[in-house]
Batch of 4 targets.
Target 1
Amino acid sequence: LDFDLYLAQSPLRSDAQLTIMEKATELGVRGVYPVITDNCALNKSVLEKKQEKWQKAMYEASKQCERAKIPTCFEPTTLEEVLEKSFDNILKQFFFVLLFYHLFHR
């Protein structure tokens, strides 16, 4: 890719999240931000334990698709923190920011 692609997403349970990490790696992401949300399937303590497992899955997927650079699985964070960290460097770090969300009407 001619640009750095990052994924920020609310983690799913078990195998589904491992599949996301593998496929994101195969698609060329530079890093994944596990985002803690109100409806997150896992709590923060579980996410912190899973981070190492996800990083290993990304490493294995990198080897399988012969990728030179191994992506990073960042520490679990909130979407606000991801955007605050990058907002200061938005012109340097991000060319495009795509945000998808679902608003529940009650």
Target 2
Amino acid sequence: KGKEAEILRKWAHGWAVPDFSVLKEFKDSVSSTGFSSIEVEDVTCAIKPSAKRLYYAYYIGIVGAKLYSLFNRKATDFGKKNIETAYLQYQGLKKDLWEYQIVLAQK
């Protein structure tokens, strides 16, 4: 799972988040902080068209991103790598590395 983990790690880094939540761990955390009636809805199928559009946009945006990196010496690593997230999220989706879940809980 090294290559698969690397896809998720790079994607998270591009969004400036340390990691993505695992559903079971998220539900456990929500429950331990006093929430109950936890409901989960998998809406992955509904976001697939948007994920695919982002993937296609990557191929258009990469040219601008490379030029930005080349001519902007003050560009941050985040600014340089953010465009890659559009590619990585779709690669991860195609490999079933992630799902889009909506979690509803009551307190």
Target 3
Amino acid sequence: ITVVQVSGELRLPSAARLEAALCEAVRRPDERLLIDLSGCLLIDSIAIGSVLRARRALDRDTATGPAMVLVANRPQILRALGLTGIDRMVPTLGERHRALDLLLRFP
């Protein structure tokens, strides 16, 4: 499991670092990814696109459990995830330990 933790404002300048971290993670075979947005104050469309690309790269049979989980608990971040539909494609939990439990539940 790779954990990518984000804090502060996730806008164009910092989205490149997020993109690089996610690209690195999805190259590993059978990788599971936890993106922790609990410290994120703002997320823009560029960063949301990075999350969606990572989701597509990790796309696999749901019988093996989720390949990616998001952690988000701030209303503005949850709203952005809801408006884009990511919350319907990727399990989104409010606490990191619950997200890790979900990823570890499947081999």
Target 4
Amino acid sequence: GLPGRSLRPAIDRGEPLAARPAIIEFCPRRPGGGLISARTIVEERYKFTLFAPSGEGVLVDLTDDPHETRNLWDDPAHREVKADLVLRLANEMARTDRLGEGWLGGA
């Protein structure tokens, strides 16, 4: 099955769910071939997206900017936040890796 967790305990018994970030993967084919890949982690305060192969990204403070109008990617004041979210995203990707099951990302 897909990596994830059952919501049954929360639905059936009202048990609280432990906080975990949302992970979003998007990997469309570009015109002329090739892939562009986006991986996003959304936590309570921040939304972080990393694009490959460019290495560019988007970092948004959802508390201060709920409409996501300011990209903090290049803001030196958010360098540590960005580094932490890169690590968290990598850990979540490794935790949910399904390549050993013969699955390859994409729609």
